[in-house]
C-alpha cells in the first residue's frame, strides 16, 4: 500500500525509553499492548471496518512508524495507515471459542516491525452473533488510556454510521501536539524544578529484592513472563472500596484511595518477603493532567518510582497514608519522571487501571488484556488491578526466570492473604498480619520437626552406658596415646570411684566441678564419675588463658577443680574469698569404691556447663541438662547408626560441646573411643599420621579441622565423617565423600546441645544442614517473630528437648535469647542468631550470621553470601569477609586463602565475583593470607584478622581499563555518560546510563571496533566483562 508521510519528528522521553526497550529485548514482543473485546450482538462487520478506518484517518498516533535519522530514532506520521482491519471467520471451526483463544495468544506474541507499522487489529466472528475485536498497539504509540479512548471512538463512529453518518467527528486531539508541548516544556522553569526533584529523589537507595531465594538482579535478564489472573470477587471488592472511603484513607479521589490501599498491601508483601524497610515500586501515571491532552491517543504515560519507608509500628492504614503522601508529591513532577534506568530503581510495578469500556454501540462487551508472554526483563513482578463497574480483577505478571511455577502460586496466595488481613483489620501492625495460609503454617511448624519420642529424653545417657557395661564388660571402651586402654568394666568401675570420692569431698547433686586435664582416658573416667555423682562438669581447656579460666570458675561457682597440674596459676587470677579446692585425677580414680548405690541423674539434672563467647566480652555459661544430652545422643544415633565395631577418633577440645558426642555416643552403643594427645590434634601432619595408624572408622571435626587434616596429607577412608561447627565449603563437600562411606553435615549451637540438624553430603551442590533430630523443632522467623515461607531468609530459632536450661547466673540474657515457644504451648525456643531458610524439600539451608549483616553505603549486606561466592572458586581454599571503617569510608574487605600455586590477583577476584554478585557486594580490598586465624574450637577468629591496610595483596576499588578493547569501551562510556573516568569494574547504569544510551553505546562500539555487543549485557555486567564478551565474539 503506497503511503505518504509527514516529516520526521523526534521521540518523546517516554517513547525513547520504550524504543530502547524494544531493541534491547529484540527477540520478544515486550511492548505489545493487546486487548480483546468480546461483543455480544448483531454487529455488522462492514460498518465496523468503515468506523475503524474513519478513526484511523483522524487519529495520528495510529499511523506512526519509526524512522532513523543520523543513527537516532524518529517518528513519522503517515498520511494513510499501512494496514486494514482484518476479518477472521472462526464460526465454522469445531470449537470457535478455543480457536479464538489460540489465535489471540499467537497474534499477541507477534513482534512489530515498527518501521512498517505499530498497530495490528482484526475482527473475529465466532458465530451466534458473537464477535471479538482484537486491538494490539505497540507501546511506542499507546498506553492504557489510549485503548479506552480508541474503544469509545470506534463505538461512537460505528453508532453514527448506523444512523447515517451525519455526525461523524473529524477532529481529535493530535499526538504530535503533545510532542511539541513536551519539547517546549523541557525549556521551562517548571521542568528544571522537576528535574531537581527527581535528581534528589534518585539518590535514595533501596536494597535489591529477593523472592523465594531468587534475586532478580543476580539472574541473566530475561523478558519471558507468565501471567496469573485472579478474580477478587464482589465481597472483597466492596470491602476494598468501603475501606478506601473510610476516614483516614479517603482522599481527593476514590481511585487514589483504592490505589493507596493496594500499594500498602503490595509493599507489606515486599517488606515481609525481604525484611527491607526502604522500598520502591514503579507506578504508571497516565500523565494527562488538565484538559488539553485528556483525550489524546498516544504514549503519554510515565513510569514513576514511589518510595516507602516501612517502620515497626506501621499498620495497613498508616502505610496507605504514606502512599497518598508519596502520590501527591510525585504527581507534581510526573512529566519529568526518570523511569527505571537499567532496572536499578525498582523491580516491582503496580498498575491500577480504572478503565471501564462499557458497551459497544449499545451491545454488551467484555474486555480482556491479552498478555504477549513477555515484558520488561528488569521487572520481577508487576501487579495490575482492574477496577471496572463490578468486581476487581488482578493480574500478576511474573518474570519466569525469577519465579518458578510453584512460587508464582505462592506469591499470589501471600498477596491475597495480606489483602484479606488488611480488609479484616486495617489497623493491624504489618509485622503481625497473616500472610501464610493454614496449610503452609502447619507444615512450617509441625512438618519441619524431628520425630517425636518422649522416652528419648527421659533420664540420662548413663543408663545406656550401664547397659553396655552389663552386656560386654570386657570389650574395649577407650584408649589414648599413653597406651592406656580401659574396658567397659574398668571405665565404669573407675568412674564409680571418682563419683564416690567426689561425694566424700562434699560435692552435692547439682554442683559444678571444673575439669582441667590433659587429654586421655583418665579424663573420660573423671567426666563419667562427675556425672554419676549427680554433679555437672565445667570444661577448662589447659590452653585457654588463665584469666579466662579463672573467670569461668568464679562465674560458674565451681565446687572444686579436678586438675593434673597442681601448680597451675588459676588461683592467682580467681577472685574468690577462699582458694578453690583442687584434686588430682589419680586420687579420684584410685579412691575406694562407693558403698552406696549411685542413682542415675534425672532428666532435669545438670550435666555440664560450657562457656561460649559473649558479645560484651564476658563469656556466658550454657547449662545443659541430662535430658537434653540424652535426647541429642539418642537422636543422632538414630540417624548416624554407630555400631559396636566402630572406633571413633575424638579430636575436639573438651571446651567445645561437640566433644560430648565423641566421648559419650560410642559408649552408648558399645563402640570404642580413641583419645589422642593435644599436640596431635592441633597439628595437621600429626593428626593425619595418627588417623592413618589408627583403626578409627569414625571422626568428627569442624571444616577447618578437616581441611587441616587434608593439608597434613591424609588420604585415607572412614566409614563415617561428621562435619559441623561452621558452613561447609564447597571444596570440602566435594572432597570428603571420597574419603568415607557416608559424610554428614551437622548444625546446632551450644545452647541446643551439640547438634540439632544433620544431612548426608553427596557433593558440593545444594549443601544444606538437613532436618531436625528427634524431639527437635526448627523455625525460620522474621525479625518480628513471624514464620517466613520456604526459600525466604530469616533467623533460625530452635525448640525442643535439646534446648539448654539457661545461661548460668544471667537471667536477663536468658530471657532475651530463650523465649516461650509461640507455636507449641509450654515449650521454649532459642534464638540462634543464625540466618537460614527452609527449602521446599524440607531441608534447612544455613546462610550465615545475623550479626554478620552489615550496612555499607546504604546497602544491607550479608557477609556470608560473599564468602560463599568466594568459596565457590576452585582456587580459593577459604575466605572471610568483613566490613571495615565508618560512614563513607566503610568498605568490604575479603581475606582469602588460596590453594597452593593458584593465587589470583585482587582484580581478577573482584571480576569473577561480579558474575554472581551485584556491584555493591564486591569487596574493595582483597587480602591474601597463608591461613586464617582459628579459635581453640577450630572456628575462624575474625577478631584476629590482620589490619587490611597492612595486608599483602591489598587492592583499592578503582582499577583502570586494561588493554585496547577495555580502553575503547571506557572512552565510549565517558563520552556518553559525561564522566571523567571509567574503571574495569564499573557498571554502565550505576554511572548514570539508561536504555537509550545503551543503544547508542552499542552503535558506537560497533563503529569503533566492528564488534557486536548484546544490549542486555549492559544491565548487570561490568566494563571488563563486556570487553571479554566482545573479544570472544570477535574471535569467533
Describe the structure.
The chain is of the alpha/beta class. Among the domains are: 9-180, Chloramphenicol acetyltransferase-like domain (Chloramphenicol Acetyltransferase, 2-Layer Sandwich); 455-837, ANL, N-terminal domain (Rossmann fold, 3-Layer(aba) Sandwich), CATH 3.40.50; 857-950, ANL, C-terminal domain (GMP Synthetase, Chain A, domain 3); 963-1035, ACP-like (Non-ribosomal Peptide Synthetase Peptidyl Carrier Protein, Chain A, Orthogonal Bundle), CATH 1.10.1200.10. The protein contains 30 helices and 40 strands. It has a nine-stranded mixed beta sheet. Strand 39 (891-898), helix 26 (906-913) and strand 40 (925-928) form a beta-alpha-beta unit. The model is unreliable at 950-956 (pLDDT under 50).
Strand line-up in the sheet with most strands: 16-15-24-23-25-26-27-28-29
Report the β-strand fraction as a percent range.
15-25%
Instruction: Report the average pLDDT across residues.
Output: 88
Structural class: alpha/beta
Shape label: elongated
| Total E-strand runs | 40
Helix proportion range: 25-40%
| CATH architecture name of the domain at 455-837 | 3-Layer(aba) Sandwich
Instruction: State the CATH superfamily name of the domain at 455-837.
Output: ANL, N-terminal domain
CATH class of the domain at 455-837: Alpha Beta
Largest sheet entry: 9 strands, mixed
Amino acid at each position: 500500500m503506497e503511503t505518504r508521510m509527514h516529516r520526521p519528528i523526534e521521540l518523546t522521553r517516554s517513547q525513547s525509553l520504550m524504543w530502547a526497550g524494544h531493541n534491547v529485548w529484540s527477540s520478544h514482543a515486550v511492548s505489545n499492548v493487546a486487548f480483546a473485546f468480546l461483543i455480544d450482538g448483531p454487529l455488522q462487520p462492514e460498518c465496523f471496518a468503515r468506523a475503524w478506518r474513519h478513526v484511523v484517518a483522524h487519529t495520528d498516533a495510529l499511523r506512526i512508524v519509526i524512522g532513523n535519522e543520523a543513527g537516532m530514532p524518529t517518528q513519522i506520521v503517515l498520511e494513510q495507515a499501512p494496514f486494514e482491519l482484518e476479518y477472521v471467520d472462526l464460526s465454522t471451526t469445531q470449537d470457535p471459542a478455543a480457536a479464538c483463544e489460540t489465535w489471540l495468544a499467537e497474534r499477541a506474541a507477534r513482534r512489530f516491525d515498527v518501521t512498517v507499522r505499530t498497530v495490528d487489529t482484526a475482527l473475529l466472528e465466532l458465530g451466534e452473533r458473537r464477535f471479538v475485536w482484537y486491538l494490539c498497539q505497540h507501546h511506542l504509540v499507546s498506553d492504557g488510556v489510549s485503548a479506552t479512548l480508541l474503544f469509545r471512538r470506534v463505538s461512537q463512529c460505528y453508532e453514527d454510521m448506523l444512523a447515517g453518518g451525519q455526525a461523524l467527528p473529524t477532529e481529535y486531539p493530535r499526538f504530535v501536539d503533545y510532542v511539541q508541548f513536551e519539547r517546549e516544556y523541557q525549556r521551562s522553569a517548571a521542568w528544571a524544578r522537576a528535574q531537581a526533584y527527581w535528581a534528589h529523589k534518585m539518590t535514595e537507595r533501596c536494597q535489591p529484592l529477593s523472592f523465594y531465594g531468587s534475586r532478580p538482579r543476580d539472574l541473566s535478564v530475561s523478558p519471558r513472563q507468565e501471567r496469573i489472573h485472579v478474580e477478587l470477587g464482589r465481597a472483597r471488592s466492596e470491602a476494598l472500596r468501603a475501606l478506601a472511603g473510610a476516614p483516614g484513607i479517603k482522599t481527593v479521589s476514590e481511585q487514589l484511595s483504592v490505589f493507596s490501599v493496594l500499594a500498602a498491601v503490595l509493599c507489606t508483601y515486599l517488606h515481609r518477603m525481604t525484611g527491607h524497610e526502604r522500598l520502591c515500586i514503579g507506578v504508571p501515571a497516565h500523565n494527562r493532567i488538565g484538559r488539553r491532552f485528556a483525550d489524546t491517543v498516544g504514549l503519554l504515560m510515565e513510569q514513576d518510582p514511589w518510595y516507602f519507608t516501612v517502620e515497626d509500628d506501621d499498620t495497613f492504614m498508616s502505610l496507605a497514608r504514606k502512599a497518598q503522601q508519596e502520590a501527591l508529591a510525585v504527581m507534581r513532577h510526573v512529566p519529568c519522571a526518570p523511569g527505571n534506568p537499567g532496572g536499578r530503581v525498582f523491580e516491582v510495578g503496580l498498575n491500577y487501571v480504572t478503565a471501564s469500556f462499557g458497551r459497544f454501540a449499545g451491545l454488551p462487551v467484555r474486555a480482556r488484556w491479552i498478555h504477549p508472554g513477555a515484558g520488561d526483563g528488569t521487572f520481577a513482578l508487576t501487579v495490575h488491578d482492574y477496577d471496572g463497574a463490578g468486581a476487581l480483577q488482578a493480574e500478576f505478571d511474573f518474570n519466569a526466570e525469577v519465579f518458578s511455577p510453584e512460587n508464582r502460586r505462592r506469591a499470589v496466595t501471600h498477596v491475597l492473604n495480606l489483602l484479606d488481613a488488611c480488609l479484616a483489620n486495617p489497623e493491624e501492625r504489618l509485622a503481625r498480619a497473616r500472610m501464610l495460609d493454614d496449610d503452609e503454617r502447619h507444615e512450617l511448624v509441625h512438618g519441619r520437626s524431628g520425630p517425636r519420642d518422649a522416652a528419648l529424653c527421659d533420664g540420662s545417657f548413663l543408663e545406656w552406658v550401664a547397659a553396655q557395661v552389663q552386656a560386654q564388660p570386657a570389650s574395649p571402651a577407650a584408649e589414648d596415646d599413653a597406651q592406656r586402654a580401659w574396658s567397659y568394666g574398668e571405665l565404669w568401675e573407675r568412674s564409680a570411684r571418682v563419683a564416690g570420692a567426689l561425694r566424700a569431698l562434699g560435692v552435692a547433686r547439682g554442683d559444678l566441678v571444673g575439669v582441667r586435664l590433659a587429654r586421655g582416658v583418665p579424663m573420660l573416667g573423671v567426666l563419667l564419675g562427675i556425672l554419676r555423682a549427680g554433679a555437672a562438669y565445667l570444661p577448662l581447656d589447659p590452653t585457654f588463658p588463665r584469666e579466662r579460666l579463672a573467670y569461668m570458675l568464679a562465674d560458674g561457682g565451681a565446687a572444686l577443680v579436678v586438675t593434673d597440674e597442681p601448680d597451675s596459676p588459676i588461683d592467682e587470677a580467681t577472685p574468690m574469698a577462699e582458694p578453690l579446692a583442687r584434686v588430682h585425677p589419680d586420687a579420684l580414680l584410685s579412691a575406694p569404691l562407693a558403698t552406696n548405690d549411685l542413682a542415675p541423674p534425672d532428666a532435669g539434672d545438670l550435666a555440664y556447663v560450657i562457656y561460649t563467647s559473649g558479645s560484651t566480652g564476658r563469656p556466658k555459661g550454657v547449662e545443659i541438662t541430662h535430658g537434653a544430652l540424652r535426647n541429642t545422643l539418642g537422636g543422632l544415633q538414630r540417624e548416624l547408626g554407630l555400631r559396636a565395631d566402630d572406633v571413633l577418633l575424638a579430636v575436639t577440645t573438651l571446651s567445645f560441646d561437640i566433644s560430648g558426642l565423641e566421648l559419650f555416643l560410642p559408649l552408648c552403643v558399645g563402640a570404642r573411643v580413641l583419645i589422642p594427645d593435644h599436640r596431635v590434634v592441633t597439628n595437621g601432619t600429626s593428626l593425619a599420621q595418627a588417623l592413618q595408624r589408627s583403626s578409627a572408622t569414625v571422626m568428627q571435626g569442624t571444616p577447618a579441622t578437616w581441611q587441616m587434616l587434608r593439608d597434613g596429607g591424609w588420604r585415607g577412608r572412614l566409614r563415617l565423617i561428621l562435619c559441623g561447627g561452621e558452613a561447609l565449603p564447597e571444596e570440602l563437600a566435594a572432597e570428603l565423600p571420597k574419603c568415607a562411606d557416608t559424610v554428614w553435615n551437622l548444625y546446632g549451637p551450644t545452647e541446643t546441645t551439640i547438634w540439632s540438624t544433620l544431612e548426608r553430603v553427596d557433593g558440593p551442590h545444594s549443601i544444606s544442614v538437613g532436618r531436625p533430630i528427634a524431639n527437635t523443632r526448627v523455625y525460620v522467623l522474621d525479625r518480628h517473630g513471624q514464620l517466613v515461607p520456604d526459600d525466604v531468609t530469616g533467623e533460625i530459632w530452635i525448640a525442643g528437648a535439646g534446648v539448654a536450661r539457661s545461661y548460668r547466673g544471667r537471667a536477663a540474657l536468658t530471657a532475651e535469647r530463650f523465649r516461650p515457644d509461640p507455636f507449641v504451648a509450654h515449650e521454649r525456643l532459642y534464638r540462634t542468631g543464625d540466618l537460614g531458610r527452609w527449602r521446599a524439600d524440607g531441608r534447612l539451608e544455613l546462610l550465615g550470621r545475623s550479626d554478620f549483616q552489615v550496612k555499607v553505603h546504604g546497602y544491607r549486606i550479608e557477609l556470608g553470601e560473599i564468602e560463599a561466592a568466594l568459596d565457590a572458586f576452585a582456587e580459593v581454599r577459604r575466605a572471610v569477609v568483613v566490613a571495615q571503617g565508618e560512614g563513607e569510608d566503610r568498605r568490604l574487605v575479603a581475606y582469602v586463602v588460596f590453594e597452593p600455586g593458584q593465587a589470583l590477583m585482587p582484580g581478577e577476584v573482584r571480576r569473577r565475583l561480579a558474575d554472581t554478585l551485584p556491584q555493591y557486594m564486591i569487596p574493595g580490598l582483597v587480602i591474601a593470607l597463608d591461613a586464617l586465624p582459628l579459635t581453640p574450637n577450630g572456628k575462624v577468629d575474625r577478631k584476629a584478622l590482620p589490619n587490611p591496610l597492612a595486608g599483602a595483596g591489598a587492592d583499592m576499588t578503582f582499577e583502570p581499563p586494561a588493554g585496547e578493547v577495555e580502553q575503547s569501551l571506557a572512552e565510549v562510556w565517558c563520552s556518553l555518560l559525561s564522566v571523567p573516568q571509567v574503571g574495569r569494574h564499573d557498571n554502565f547504569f550505576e554511572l548514570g546510563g539508561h536504555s537509550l544510551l545503551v543503544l547508542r553505546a552499542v552503535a558506537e562500539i560497533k563503529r569503533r571496533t566492528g564488534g557486536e555487543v548484546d544490549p542486555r549485557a549492559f544491565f548487570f555486567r561490568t566494563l571488563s566483562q563486556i570487553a571479554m564478551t566482545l573479544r570472544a565474539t570477535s574471535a569467533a
